[in-house]
Write a structure and sequence with these properties.
Structural class: alpha/beta
Number of strands: 14
Radius of gyration: 21 Å
CATH class of the largest domain: Alpha Beta
CATH architecture of the largest domain: 3-Layer(aba) Sandwich
Strand order of the largest sheet: 2-8-7-6-5-3-4
Shape: globular
Order of helices and strands: HHEHHEHEHEHEHEHEEHHHEEEHEEEH
Strand content: 5-15%
Length: 399
């Protein structure tokens, strides 16, 4: 008799970012003064007007019933309008599928596009969920590696070197999780034109679209390269822009045939997204961007703070990110040397050592396909950033 768990599901790795966050929270609950840099979520409350819309929605009996799998018609229309407003990309409401968070949009997209053996070009470092979603769909991830020397940006030449006759999809993410890298407009256009030239689908994850700094403007590949036509799939959601990670509302925007297929899949997986959450999302995307403007100001301050503190630690090289709310320092100088009476052989062991000895939680680069790095979220209070990185500095200085 074989394993009790199917090979397909048994091969899935637990989300490393959620695992680190869970461990940090468990230690905190046990009374330890842990500072967690693991979670990818804003530390701000959801804006009041959005919460109020949800409260009102909960009181209306129509929201206590099943609604269309693809999403409430008014929310689909509002997402289409928001996409034109923010990205300059014109779509119909029928091209929008409302999903249970951005993760379901990712899963739906790859399940809809991939047959067994189809290859997806994935630029590393990459978010931990992408490889699992691709593998579950039967696809093959082909990694295009980048590092801090290029600001974690891939070139058309690198993508072309990785392309084979089996390549079907390019996954494009800007701003990036985990690096915070943002592709300049000219490079977005060049990559989009290359995808058109080779008749590839482009899946573009734009969840961090509004979190950019230093005057950098995020450019959507869908609007920058209209020639992509029906071969572009946009993934997005309210989680990061409106501090709504727990509300679980994302969306997938694609050609009608892809949306129909993905909706069929979702009809069996989850049915509609919770109506109260959809109404909260409607208030969010229909409103202005004042909430994210306030968050961006705080994140920008914290970004500069954490980059400076990390770069002051010998053995750490921390580029300044252009977007999102993560830094992704290279920490190879701390590997293979005594720290706190122990020696880490890799960045996973280093992260464990730092958690044990300094009670600071960060996610190791192994989770993102590039060992030798750590990801720190700076979506936490300034005082916690100063205290947490200070503990690491003290630990490293002690040898």
């Amino acid at each position: 008799m074989g394993s009790r768990v199917s090979d397909r599901v048994g091969a899935i790795a637990e989300s490393a970012t959620l695992a680190v966050d869970a461990k940090a929270k468990a230690l905190k609950a046990a009374g330890r003064p842990v500072i967690g840099f693991g979670a990818g979520e804003p530390d701000f409350p959801t804006p009041g007007y959005i919460v109020d819309a949800a409260i009102q929605a909960a009181k209306e009996p129509k929201n206590h019933r099943y609604t269309p799998v693809g999403g409430l018609p008014e929310l689909r229309a509002a997402v289409a309008a928001k996409t034109l407003r923010d990205s300059g990309y014109a779509v119909d409401a029928g091209q929008v599928l409302i999903t249970n968070g951005g993760k379901q949009a990712v899963y739906n997209a790859f399940a809809t596009l991939l047959d067994p053996g189809d290859e997806v070009l994935v630029i590393a470092p990459y978010w931990t969920t992408y490889p699992e979603a691709i593998q579950l769909a039967g696809g093959v991830m082909v990694v295009v590696a980048t590092d801090e020397t290029t600001g974690y940006l891939a070139t058309v030449d690198q993508l072309e070197a990785a392309r084979t006759p089996r390549t079907k999809v390019l996954l494009f993410v800007s701003p990036s999780n985990p690096t915070g890298a943002v592709y300049p407009g000219a490079e977005v256009e060049a990559i989009g034109r290359w995808a058109v030239q080779h008749d590839l689908f482009v899946v573009t994850d734009e969840i961090y679209e509004h979190l950019t700094y230093d005057g950098i403007q995020n450019v959507s590949i869908a609007s920058a390269v209209p020639e992509l036509g029906d071969k572009v799939v946009v993934l997005n959601g309210v989680a990061k822009t409106y501090a709504m990670t727990g509300w679980r509302v994302g969306w997938m925007i694609a050609a009608p045939d892809l949306i129909k297929a993905a909706s069929n899949l979702q009809s069996h997986a989850t049915s509609n997204v919770a109506n109260v959450s959809q109404m909260a999302a409607l208030a969010a995307v229909s409103g202005d961007l004042a909430a994210v403007d306030e968050m961006r100001t705080a994140f920008d301050r914290r970004r500069k703070l954490i980059v400076g503190l990390l770069n002051d630690i010998p053995g750490i090289v921390c580029p300044t990110p252009g977007g999102a709310f993560y830094v992704y320092p290279q920490v190879k100088g701390l590997i293979g040397r005594p720290i706190g009476g122990r020696t880490a052989a890799n960045s996973a062991e280093l992260a464990a050592l730092i958690l044990d000895e300094a009670e600071v939680a960060a996610v190791p680069g192994e989770a993102f396909g590039t060992p030798g790095y750590l990801r720190f979220s700076y979506a936490l209070a300034d005082a916690d950033i100063t205290e947490g990185i200070g503990r690491i500095a003290k630990l490293v200085a002690g040898g």
